[in-house]
Amino acid sequence: MSLNKGKLLLPAIFVTIFALSRIPGLLPSNFSAAYAFFFCAGVYFGGALAWWLPFTTMLATDVGLNIFYYHAPPVESYLLVNYAIYAVLIGLGKWFGPKASILRLLAGGLAGALIFYLVTNTLSWWQDAAYAKTIAGWIQALTTGRPDWHPTTWEMFRNTFLSGGLFTALFVASEKLTAESPADKTAGAREPTTDGETETEPEEAKA
């Protein structure tokens, strides 16, 4: 990728898509770009950028939503658990790497959404007194959820899984569209000379 596209355009697209997806009421419950955002940040961004860009964006939107929409404290304890899982998703993306096929990356995005769902709902089962601390209670937490909850946990899983795949495909497509073409890579390059000859500037015509 060129400097402008690889270093500026792709991160800007990722942040814009994610920020827009967090507008309240725009998407169904649990239909989130977060899982794909963190996974693809691990895939495509190197060094510190893979970490500070998604976490800064997530924290800024979380604080804004808590203050202005939910009228809650800016940062709540449950976010720490979510952020720990997001760190795992970045690591998962780095493990897949940018050379992975599109199908593998889609599978990785789906796996990231599945990991988030399993961990958060298992913690909910463990902490919520409404669930029996048995295998049956754990399955209830992963499927129907509590009787007073709507939508059901199963419906939340469906949205989590579908959004993981959809937004991963969108982020991967964004990377492909902003990637430097072979023509861009060779533009301006001098053609190699033969027989060890070197190019020389033409002499000025003598008067």
Structural key phrases:
65% helix; 8 helices; globular; disordered C terminus; 207 residues; mainly alpha
Task: Please explain how this structure is put together.
The chain has 207 residues and is mainly alpha-helical. The protein has one domain (3-180). It has 8 helices and no strands. The chain has helices at residues 3-21, 34-44, 49-68, 78-96, 102-127, 135-142, 153-178, 182-186. The protein is globular, with a radius of gyration of 23 Å. The model is unreliable at 198-207 (pLDDT under 50).
Can you give me a brief rundown of this structure?
With 207 residues, the chain is mainly α.
Strand content: under 5%
Summarize the amount of helix as a percent range: 55-70%
Instruction: Return residue spans where pLDDT drops below 50 for at least 5 consecutive residues.
Output: 198-207
Question: What's the rounded overall pLDDT mean?
Answer: 86
Number of β-strand runs? 0
Main sheet attributes: strand count, strand direction, barrel closure: none
Number of domains: 1
- Protein structure class: mainly alpha
Overall radius of gyration:
23 Å
Structure annotation, total helices: 8
Order of helices and strands: HHHHHHHH
